[in-house]
């Protein structure tokens, strides 16, 4: 569910066989990739602070937010875990654009 005023998702983790809500998580930013942590104890997502992206995980049992990476520049576009679940790969970069003002000749 999207919390419209905060710009964040409210994620509900449900145990489907038991039809039981396990946990409600707030503070998952919208427009970000979200994946399960390899051991399935947390959700991992991209969080931007001051224009810099890092991976964060929210632990399901406690709701605790923990940084996974500590980059000092650039943005994370996407990420994934290695098959052994010990490493991750990601696409990082910067978005740049130039503005050109064209005026009619006088």
Could you explain how this protein is built, in words?
This protein has one domain. Helix content is 0%, strand content 52%. It contains no helices and 9 strands. The strands form 3 sheets. The protein has a 4-stranded antiparallel beta sheet with strand order 4-5-6-7, with no helix packed on it. Strands 1-2-3 form a 3-stranded antiparallel beta sheet, with no helix packed on it. Strands 8-9 form a two-stranded antiparallel ribbon.
Please describe the topology of this protein.
Blueprint: E1 2-3, E2 8-15, E3 20-29, E4 34-36, E5 42-49, E6 52-59, E7 65-67, E8 75-81, E9 88-93
Antiparallel strand pairs: 1-2, 2-3, 4-5, 5-6, 6-7, 8-9
Structure characteristics:
mainly beta; single chain; three-stranded antiparallel sheet
Put simply, the count of helices is 0
Question: Mean pLDDT, rounded to whole units?
Answer: 82
| Shape designation | elongated
Largest sheet: 4 strands, antiparallel
Distance between the termini: 55 Å
Helix content: under 10%
Which ranges are low-confidence, i.e. pLDDT below 50, for 5 or more consecutive residues?
none
> How many discrete domains?
1
- Strand line-up across the major sheet: 4-5-6-7
């Amino acid at each position: 569910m999207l919390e419209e005023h905060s710009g964040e998702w409210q994620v509900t983790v449900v145990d489907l066989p038991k039809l039981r809500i396990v946990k409600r998580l707030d503070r998952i930013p919208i427009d970000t990739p979200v994946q399960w942590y390899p051991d399935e104890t947390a959700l991992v997502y991209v969080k931007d602070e001051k224009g810099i992206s890092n991976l964060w995980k929210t632990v399901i049992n406690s709701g605790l937010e923990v940084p996974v990476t500590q980059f000092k520049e650039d943005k994370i576009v996407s990420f994934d875990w290695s098959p052994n679940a010990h490493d991750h790969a990601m696409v990082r970069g910067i978005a740049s654009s130039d503005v050109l003002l064209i005026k009619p000749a006088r």
